[in-house]
């Protein structure tokens, strides 16, 4: 049985397992999934309370009591008994469904909260964050940001946000990590795994900083280490675990590695159809992704050279993959996820600027993403490119894009809510 609840409107029983959801923040706009499965058994406050304390959406005892009452009411409705007995009997991470999904790929300095929400608004079902190295996460702490209504992973002793997410994307955001060590990966993942839909390990990055640290594509030649990292995460996290690989030198090698990865129990495997030595302009080898799909029974997410909405179907047919992941196509125009066709890139860019303002995105990341868009369609030497390069704050960017009123409005509303959004 699936129970959907919002604190304002009570409970709704839908189907199968129970997913508890509640409205979040004073705007009552975003829903947060509390990520658990509940079965009706017997009343057991001692079992329920520790679980309620871990609920990201229940911030106060008042919220928790409301949830408790909600569970009990749902149980009463479900069992038809006036005084039903209920307890949380299974606390399991909600699995993501990887069938027929359009996936925003991980992209460094691009895949921050505003860009993920933008892609989702146009139709992306699953959105990966940028790769973050485990060492960096381990220097951080998790903070609730009441002003923005976000969960922030912030470098200790600073205000530097390393990862920001919000309840709206709780069920689709994938946290991607760079690592070369199972225990370190686990300690880092534990800081934020309850706030995301899945944890993914990057095994495809060919950049020297990754390889020299034994991360990214360096893992592809260390199947024992891959096994160690993935099984350690699987055993200790309630959150689904996945990984993203590149092709190896021969299709047989890739298939062998994919089979090994499958044995670790990961929920899905993303395959970028290029080899480590390939450049982005080299065509992705969809046929070698197809070899992997044929060899494993876990969902495979096909990645490489998807630029138009029609390509989603083409790559699915060519590879037989469960889902499709796209990076550059989405970076250049995130509305490519929309079945209605792409919007003009200027409109998409403006919406990205507004979302960056709304979620107070890091200016460096916003500038980087805008520059990538501009470079694709225009040129950084033109006035727009120069203005973006010169901008030092979101206020500067807002002014350049004629969004100063929006910027003012957002900042005023934050102020007038007295720091609670
Ligand atoms: C700007 C940019 C940043 C990227 N950052 C990451 C990353 O953080 N992690 C990762 O696994 N792949 C990263 N990639 C690779 C993409 O996720 C993807 O595998 C690759 O671009 C192929 O997909 P495409 O042909 O749709 O671009 C990045 C690609 C781009 C263009």
From TrEMBL:
Residues 104-375 form the DUS-like FMN-binding domain. The keyword Flavoprotein applies. Signal peptide: none annotated. CDD domains: DUS_like_FMN. GO terms for cellular component: cytoplasm. This is tRNA-dihydrouridine(20) synthase [NAD(P)+]-like. The keyword Membrane does not apply. It comes from Sesamum alatum.
